[in-house]
Write a structure and sequence with these properties.
There is one protein chain. The chain is about 25% helix and about 35% strand. The chain has helices at about 40-50, 100-115, 145-155; strands spanning about 1-15, 20-25, 25-30, 55, 60-65, 70-75, 120-125, 130-145. Helix 2 links the parallel strand 6 (about 70-75) and strand 7 (about 120-125). The protein starts with a strand and ends with a helix.
Length: about 160
């Protein structure tokens, strides 16, 4: 799974002009399920997101997690993170998982965040045309890819 994580002072997502998910301070996480991903990848990613220490402590160092600051997560499905731009100028998205795999793993990722104690966990609508409003904090943006972690574990 791939994710782009942005530390935010607030974020929301609208579908057809209606807000379907919103958080105050926390993380906006754009999530892409890749072909071949598993529940283990969703759990690994959710655990990392929940514990990633990218919020400031009292000394001004990034030493607190979203759990430590009582923040929420806005999780947005984002198949375009699978873009392959090696050939030509039009991205290919064939590495993205089809909805039959992607939807349950995206939902598992969100459920695992909740199980880790993150609240609220707000979501977009899978496959919908969404308008996402993000108020970056910092800005702090982190890219994660479970494929690299899982390959290292298998070596």
């Amino acid at each position: 799974m791939r994710a782009v994580i942005q530390r935010v002072t607030g974020a929301s997502v609208r579908v057809d002009g209606e807000t379907v998910g919103a958080i105050a301070q926390g993380l906006c996480v754009l999530v892409c399920v890749m072909q071949g991903d598993s529940a283990a990848a969703a759990e690994l990613l959710a655990d990392k997101v929940a514990k990633l220490r990218i919020f400031h402590d009292d000394a001004g160092k990034m030493n607190r997690s979203v759990l430590d600051v009582g923040g929420g997560v806005l999780a947005i499905s984002q198949f375009t993170l699978a873009a392959d731009t090696k050939k030509g100028n039009r991205p290919s998205f064939i590495a993205a998982a089809l909805p039959a795999l992607a939807v349950p793993l995206y939902e598992h990722f969100c459920a695992r965040l909740t199980a880790n104690g993150v609240a609220p966990v707000a979501q977009g609508v899978f496959g919908a045309d969404m308008a996402v409003e993000i108020h970056n904090d910092g800005p702090v943006t982190i890219c994660l890819d479970t494929d690299t972690w899982l390959k290292r574990e298998n070596i």
